[in-house]
Design goal:
Radius of gyration: 12 Å
Number of domains: 1
Distance between the termini: 24 Å
Order of helices and strands: HEHEHH
CATH topology: Transcription Regulator spoIIAA
CATH superfamily: STAS domain
CATH architecture: 2-Layer Sandwich
Shape: globular
Strand order of the largest sheet: 1-2
Length: about 80
């Protein structure tokens, strides 16, 4: 189980590393709440500021795909283009 704090640590570690792109595989996620979504949105902004690519891969995770489909019109393209 990963909390939003754990997710933030992992995301920012990847964004700060010397790579061009960070891929976030959410295929195993069984719950995505507001804290996790907020984490992804902040990471998207941080990656943009550092000119690092951030790709979100929801896989077949129903909770992730459900949240993304409900919010598709208001989320940044980074979080919605994978599907």
């Amino acid at each position: 189980m990963c909390t939003a704090g754990d997710l933030a640590d992992i995301l920012y570690s990847g964004i700060r590393s010397p790579v061009d792109d960070v891929v976030v595989d959410l295929s195993g996620v069984t719950f995505l709440g507001v804290a996790g979504l907020n984490c992804l949105l902040r990471a998207e902004r941080a990656a943009d500021e550092r000119r690092t690519g951030l790709r979100i891969e929801p896989g077949e995770s129903y909770p992730v795909n459900r949240v993304f489909s409900l919010l598709r019109s208001t989320l940044p393209e980074t979080l919605t283009r994978a599907r």
